[in-house]
Amino acid sequence: MPDAMTDQSNRPDTRNDLRLADRIRDALSGLRYGSVEIVVHDGRIVQIERRERVRFERTESNPGASQ
């Protein structure tokens, strides 16, 4: 009889969970400032949103002034 722990990787739900984990990891990859939002409907992940913020260093000169 197969061990339940070793047989789980072949279950459709487990494969889907692994794919979702990869998608979430991809959304987080390289993100320095921002957020990752996971949208859940009826107990299932239906959407992953990535919002990235770009921060600019302030300089001594007035950034809005024309040069």
Helix and strand pattern: HHEE
Low-confidence stretches: none
Task: Give the overall shape.
Answer: elongated
Radius of gyration: 21 Å
Major sheet: size, sense and barrel closure?
A: 2 strands, antiparallel
Protein model, in words:
The chain has 67 residues and is an alpha+beta fold. It has a domain at 11-52. It is built from 2 helices and 2 strands. The protein has helices spanning 4-7, 12-28, and strands at residues 34-41, 44-52. It has a two-stranded antiparallel ribbon with strand order 1-2. The longest helix has 17 residues, at 12-28. The radius of gyration is 21 Å and the shape is elongated. The N and C termini lie far apart (77 Å). The model has no long low-confidence stretch (mean pLDDT 84). InterPro entries: DUF2292. It comes from Hydrocarboniphaga daqingensis.
List the helices and strands and how they pair.
Layout: H1 4-7, H2 12-28, E1 34-41, E2 44-52
Antiparallel strand pairs: 1-2
